[in-house]
Specification:
621 residues, mainly alpha, 27 helices, globular
């Protein structure tokens, strides 16, 4: 089996050059070229890892470099730019490592310390005493289901894996079922229930109230979670997976008797502490965001008639000034532009209509342009927000960014808004404590202290234990960051943009749009690996497609269709794939046959539940 893969991989460099030349010379194929890049990337990753048994880190880095060299500009493939493309891979790798490095390192420490100190054993023995062995996987699934609402999936999985490993030590069976149960609960709410960022941004793009998204998303998630748990039982019976050591020192400590184990609350501390801290921060942010202080009110307009005069003058050069950028925004229709540039006095009713139009403009993704804002002093707040990932920027922060930019450009016409309310200050004060890196650091320190006390370790021996944990976590960091770099290179190749253009002209009735929403999110997930990004992009596209159409049901079902689709097709370019595989001790082939298929089951079940609910409970006004 390895020889065909070797021959295939030897042909890839030639294919890179040929396809790059094809992209620069054949205009008819330009739109298809990113799909060729995606195909080569998939073949390279699967061929290197499964065919040649190459280490996943090396395979992903090599594939990322191949894909990056296939990225072409308007002038086609330029060999002298190869060094720059390698720099892009390094930058993407660093960004990915920066996002997950500390979290994974702390999670590795927590996992080892909880296992060695007996904390995981204490939790599992207590749970088994309450539910029994047969229902242990239900408890793990329910824990993941609930914890993933305020906490990212990766963090939930890190926290619960020690329990799955300890449970296997107690039962000597069903290890894969326990892992998949955790993944089932965590993955489904991660994509369907706010305030997790993905569902939050999807609901904003589609104009769905957060409360509606929460309870309908939960209704869709419940049958999907049940089906995922049943599928986990089947897979565990078909392909049972042994629990493998994650590090060189995992099995060196003797088992503890029940009276030697730490108390239940002390054992739970490394799990409860980060969940409570992150949950408090999420709740405080959500409450503060509800104030939405950047929105315009009538009193914010100092002299709307004078501002209209300035906007009318900008109509002659729409791209050369902030006023022109405002009028050219995609968020404004012809009636809105006419309202902002009308002549005559402004009464109270007219002022309210202007405010409504401006609040729509605050969500514009194209308001800022460096050339248009030349000579305008940009506030530090706006600069910080402009430097953030614009795809993942929450609507409330986008409104604040554009509001500050408008105040910078039109200060004489707009009163400054007050952002730092008591609720916002509380959210800011909790920002350090609720940061996942800091919260897991505190949890790691708690687990280290428990290990030292229970095992009566010297500081030197404790240092050795921590070093062993970090050695196992280091490989996970490398592989996950390499997967992030590979996904980033696919984004640079405009794979996502090509997929958007393929679906851009689609239309249809209600059920057709549900299927289309699902399909767009699924294809984007396969292409670039991030569920959150696929949800944001897909929901933005669907929002444009459904504008003005009669659905026959509430748009929340479009949101749950997008969320369900974003689970489909998780493979080597998805960080969740590597978290599941490496923290669980699975091979890449085992992860493809368990994790990837599990998420496909969750995805399809979510779609079926969405379709059924949209017909049985349309919620249409």
């Amino acid at each position: 089996m390895r020889l065909p893969f070797a021959i295939l991989l030897c042909l890839i460099p030639g294919a890179v050059t040929a396809l790059a030349q094809d992209a620069s010379t054949a205009t008819a194929d330009v739109d298809r070229y990113p799909l060729y890049v995606l195909a080569v990337g998939i073949v390279a990753v699967l061929g290197l890892i499964i065919g040649l048994r190459l280490n996943a880190f090396l395979a992903l880095i090599i594939s990322a470099i191949l894909v990056s060299l296939m990225v072409v500009g308007e002038e086609g493939f330029q060999m002298e730019e190869a060094g720059t493309r390698m720099g892009a891979v390094v930058t993407a790798f660093g960004n990915s490592a920066g996002g997950i490095g500390i979290v994974i390192a702390m999670a590795a420490i927590i996992g080892k310390c909880m296992l060695d100190s007996g904390a995981a054993d204490r939790i599992v023995r207590t749970a088994i005493g309450i539910t029994g062995v047969s229902k242990a996987s239900i408890g793990l699934m329910a824990s993941g289901f609930i914890l993933a609402v305020p906490v990212f999936f990766d963090t939930v999985f890190y926290l619960l894996v020690p329990l799955a490993r300890s449970l296997f030590r107690q039962t000597s069976r069903n290890y894969l079922r326990y892992l998949m149960a955790i993944a089932t609960g965590g993955a489904i709410t991660h994509t369907l229930v706010p305030p997790t960022p993905g569902p939050l941004l999807v609901s904003a793009n589609l104009g769905v109230e957060i409360g509606t998204m929460m309870w309908v998303g939960t209704l869709v998630a419940i049958p999907a979670a049940i089906m995922g748990l049943l599928f986990s039982i089947v897979v565990d019976r078909i392909m049972p997976v042994p629990m493998r050591p994650l590090g060189p020192g995992e099995e060196k400590h003797a088992r503890l008797e029940d009276d030697q184990l730490p108390g239940l609350w002390l054992a739970l501390l490394p799990i409860i502490l980060p969940v409570v801290l992150i949950g408090m921060g999420t709740l405080a942010d959500t409450v503060a965001d509800k104030e939405d202080r950047a929105r315009f009110v009538a009193e914010d307009l100092v002299d709307p008639a004078a501002w209209r005069t300035e906007l009318r003058a900008a109509q002659q050069a729409p791209e050369a000034s902030p006023a022109g950028r405002l009028l050219a925004s995609d968020t404004l229709d012809a009636a809105g532009r006419e309202l902002l540039t009308a002549e005559g006095p402004v009464d109270a009713a007219e002022r309210q209509r202007i405010v409504a139009v401006l609040n729509e403009a605050l969500l514009a993704k194209d308001f800022y342009d460096e050339t248009a804002f030349l000579g305008v002093p940009i506030s530090p707040v706006a600069k910080r927000l402009l430097d953030r990932d614009q795809v993942r920027l929450k609507p409330v922060l986008r409104r604040r960014m554009n509001r500050v930019l408008m105040e910078d450009a039109f200060g004489q016409h707009i009163r400054p808004h007050v952002w730092d309310t008591p609720r916002r200050r509380l959210a800011n004060q909790l920002s350090l404590w609720s940061n996942a890196n800091f919260a897991l650091l505190l949890a790691a320190l708690a687990s280290i202290a428990t290990l030292k006390v229970v095992r009566s370790l010297t500081l030197k021996d404790l240092g050795v234990e921590i070093e062993e944990a970090l050695m196992s976590g280091g490989m996970i960091i490398l592989i996950t960051a390499a997967g992030g770099a590979f996904g980033a290179m696919l984004q640079d190749a405009d794979v996502g943009g090509t997929i958007q253009r393929l679906f851009a002209g689609s239309r249809g009735g209600g059920l057709t749009l549900l299927l289309l929403s699902f399909a767009i999110a699924a294809v984007l997930k396969v292409a670039q690996g991030s569920s959150t990004v696929s949800m944001i992009v897909a929901s933005g596209m669907i929002a444009g497609i459904v504008s003005g159409q009669s659905l026959g049901f509430h748009p929340v079902y479009l949101a749950t269709a997008v969320g369900s689709g974003s689970l489909m097709g998780s493979w080597m370019n998805d960080s969740g794939f590597w978290v599941f595989a490496k923290m669980g001790g699975l091979t890449e082939s085992e992860a493809l046959r368990s994790w990837t298929l599990l998420l496909a089951v969750l995805s399809v079940t979510g779609l079926v539940a969405t379709v059924l609910l949209s017909q049985l409970m349309p919620l249409a006004g």
